[in-house]
Design a protein that fits this description.
The chain has 129 residues and is an alpha+beta fold. The protein has 4 helices and 9 strands.
Length: 129
């Protein structure tokens, strides 16, 4: 499994890449692997508000349907509309082309609650035992 060091992670298996006051969000390599072949992604509309650790959308795979949780609170300023027609991108490229939303953060203090790559890898290892 791949967990880039320049990202932060949640125990719900989302990743976040922070650039200034914006946060790009997606699901981790572990999450896409566990879900299997992703067939549908439902994302919020641009301009909607998300709340830290609350669902913002849904990902559907051949195995199951799972909620997507926002690592931070703020306003959705961009969505990856390519996932509507190509949801499998999340499986093949979860950290680059498979990103889901970009949020203008309302409280950067929430970042302190997130996990580093090493802490997330340890969490996944413990969860898998």
């Amino acid at each position: 499994m791949d967990y880039p060091d320049d990202l932060l992670y949640t125990k719900e298996h989302e990743w976040i890449k922070v650039e200034d006051n914006r946060a790009k969000i997606g699901i981790t390599d572990y999450a896409q692997h566990e879900l299997g072949d992703i067939v549908f992604v439902e994302l919020p509309e641009v301009g909607s508000e998300v709340v830290a650790m609350e669902p913002f959308g849904v990902v559907e795979s051949v195995k199951t349907v799972s909620d997507l949780y926002s690592p931070v609170s703020g306003e959705v300023v961009e969505i990856n509309s390519e996932l509507e027609s190509m949801p499998e991108t999340v499986n093949s490229n979860p950290y680059d082309k498979g990103w889901m939303i970009t949020v203008e953060m309302s409280d950067k203090e929430e970042l302190k609650e997130l996990l580093s790559a090493d802490a997330y890898a340890k969490y996944v290892e413990e969860e898998s035992e």
